[in-house]
Amino acid sequence: MTDHFSNDTAAYALHALPLDEQEAYARHLRECPSCVAEVRELTETAAHLGLAAAESPPAELRARVLAHIARVRQLPPPSAGTHRQTVARAVPSRLLAAAASVLLVLSLGLGAAVVGQQRRIDGLTASAQRVERIVTDPNRQTVGAPATTGTGSGTAVVAGTEALVLAEDLPQLPADRAYQLWVVSPGGVRSAGVLSTRNGSATVLVAGLSPEDRLAMTVEPAGGSGAPTSDPLWRVEV
Amino acid sequence: MARRLRPVPDRGQGDGDRAGDEASRPRSLDAVMRDVARGDVEAFEQLYDRMAGTVFGTIRRVLRDTAQSEEVAQEVLVEVWRTASRFDAERGNATTWILTMAHRRAIDRVRSSQSSIDREDRVAQLSHEPAYDVVATQVEQRLEAEQVRRCLRSLTDLQRESVALAYYSGYTYREVAGLLQVPLGTVKTRLRDGLIRLRDCLGVTT
User: Fold this and answer.
1) Nearest Cα to B32, choosing from B90, B81, B100, B105?
2) Would you list the DSSP string of B6-56?
3) Which residue of B has its CA nearest to A62?
4) Which of A65, A98, A208, B20 is most exposed, with the fewest beta carbons within 10 Å of its own?
5) A106-142: string of b/e by CB count within 10 Å (b at 16+)?
6) How far is the alpha carbon of B157 from chain A, nearest alpha carbon, in Å?
């Protein structure tokens, strides 16, 4: 291997390439069978590093996982002929634009330290990758809800256990209040974050969702609350 | 001696006095995965019992925070269930598939968190080997850990340091270069030479 990718096999196998280089390398692998063979061996080698880190899992994790899989549909086996079995509706382009603009604006506030800066760039590109994974999932579902009070609406693109949530037309709040997103499960309510709004919109990535969950947005004191203190402005079934 | 990655056998069922009995030998994890892909919950429970400790441990080495690690471990194990039909034994064994997913998710999570301060603090903790105080419930896991530690000693200090910073601390090679004040190419070479040495010591071939 004499091309400029030749030394990347280990970094790739260790997940030590930043996202843009990782994607470029993945494309390179499609044309380099000898690279593929080495990457496979080094990926298996890296897995040994993980095996060596084994510890007792938390006791309650087992029951939680088993309860969760009872509510999750498995992917069907890939069919021999076609790549995509379902034609999903296009994700609203304003959702993608909103997500991109939120990420772009955040990127303008980078700090000075090289590591810190790269960390934030990686953070944004990792978020962008999660967004892409959600919006390109052929089994994704797009669900939306208008506000129950005042203006504003919520839209969620749900793929597997993750969702990209867009809240729009949000009225400006006084400085001591903020919008907060919640995941409502049969077992309880947890916060999915306080929204930072720009021009009346906010985008949030949510993970760890189950099919019976609902997403709800409320107005809380600035900085957020441990639990909702007001009625939801809107609710979306996952 | 060529050796494929062994799945960790399940020892929790009190089958000690049936030594030599075919039925007491655990099935390969690849075989268990095939059943999981068909929706067999009991097979998934077997998979959980074998793999949850190493999934959780791998994630926690990267994320540090126990609560977040539990969350990501749950995500990964549910994703294993959800996408089991996508597992392709031709491309690598089930243990590798699961642990690669776990490590990937932990890395995604740590790189997308906004608090980089906590990560920069860890410059002071350049870990060279897996922790000795890891409590593994199964003998095979402890033996595996011991073998990896032994093989890591066959790397040079510089190789081991770079591999540990990349895998266990979750830094990109660029960050490693910044932390160690060495050229980018040097880090890539150390990672590659180190991982190849580890591969050969462990006897991994595909």
Assistant:
1) B81
2) PPPPP-TT--GGGTT-GGGSPPPHHHHHHHHHTT-HHHHHHHHHHHHHHHH
3) B48
4) B20
5) beeeeeeeebbebbbbbbbbbbbbbbeebbeeeebeb
6) 16
pLDDT by residue (tens digit) across A65-98?
A: 999 999 999 998 877 544 443 444 455 666 666 5
Q: What ipTM was reported for this prediction? A: 0.82
- pLDDT tens sequence across B7-28: 555 444 443 344 444 455 678 9
Could you say which DSSP state residue B84 is in?
Answer: G
Within 8 A by CB and 6+ apart from A108, the residues are: none
CA nearest A88: which of A161, A156, A157, A145?
A157
Tell me whether B144 touches chain A (CB under 8 Å): yes
Determine if the pTM surpasses 0.80.
Answer: no
Residue B171 and residue A129: Cβ atoms within 8 Å? Answer: no
B42: nearest CA partner in chain A: A66
8 Å CB contact of A14 and B191: yes
Which residues of chain B lie closer than 8 angstroms to A76, CB-CB? 85
CB pairs under 8 A between A and B: 244
Q: Give chain A's length.
A: 238
Q: CB–CB of A158/A169 below 8 Å?
A: no
- Say if B46 is an interface residue toward chain A (CB within 8 Å): no
What's the 3-state SS for A122-138?
Answer: HHHHHHHHHHHHHHCCC
Q: Point out the residue among A37, A56, A73 whose CB comes nearest to the CB of B135.
A: A56
